[in-house]
């Protein structure tokens, strides 16, 4: 210890040996194939998940466009109805003014006729 060297510990060396002995042999063809198959399965699941997610996003986009179009049609219909109602009210007001003017003219005429009689 005084010379800076760590003493040899047999228990630590035995643990390392057990660890390395328990590791799988990666050079066996069957092990390589099974890891490849597992990796391919994981990649396939990720691919299919991404595909499904994209399809759902496109479906939501289409539904959103349909809803926007329906809202636009309803708004245009409502605006047209409001415009028709506004024109109808303007015509009623104009008709009322014309009727009032005609009634006033008739009243003046009657007063003028009555004044002539007197």
Question: Can you lay out the helices and strands and say which pair or pack?
Answer:
Elements: H1 10-22, H2 29-117
Distance between the first and last residues' Cα: 148 Å
> Structural class per helix/strand content?
mainly alpha
Average pLDDT, all residues: 89
Q: Using only CA atoms, what is the Rg? A: 47 Å
The quaternary organization reads as: single chain
Number of strands: 0
Contiguous runs where pLDDT drops below 50 for at least 5 residues? none
In DSSP terms, counting alpha (H) and pi (I) runs of 4 or more, how many helices? Answer: 2
Q: How many domains is the backbone divided into?
A: 1
Give the topology string: H per helix, E per strand: HH
As a percent range, the share of helical residues equals over 70%
Q: What portion of residues belong to β-strands?
A: under 5%
- Outline type: rod-shaped
Largest sheet: none
Descriptive notes:
This protein has one domain (10-108). 86% of the residues lie in helices and 0% in strands. It is rod-shaped, with a radius of gyration of 47 Å. The protein contains two helices and no strands. The model has no long low-confidence stretch (mean pLDDT 89). The protein has 118 residues and is an all-alpha fold. The longest helix is centred in the middle third of the chain and has 89 residues, at 29-117.
């Amino acid at each position: 210890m005084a010379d800076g060297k760590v003493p040899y510990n047999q228990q630590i060396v035995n643990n390392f040996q057990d660890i390395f002995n328990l590791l799988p042999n990666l050079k066996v063809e069957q092990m390589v194939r099974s890891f490849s198959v597992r990796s391919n399965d994981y990649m396939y699941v990720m691919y299919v998940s991404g595909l499904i997610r994209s399809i759902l996003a496109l479906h939501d986009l289409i539904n959103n466009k349909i809803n926007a179009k329906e809202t636009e049609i309803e708004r245009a219909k409502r605006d047209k109805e409001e415009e028709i109602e506004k024109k109808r009210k303007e015509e009623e007001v104009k008709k009322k003014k014309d009727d009032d003017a005609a009634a006033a003219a008739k009243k003046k005429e009657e007063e003028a006729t009555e004044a002539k009689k007197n």
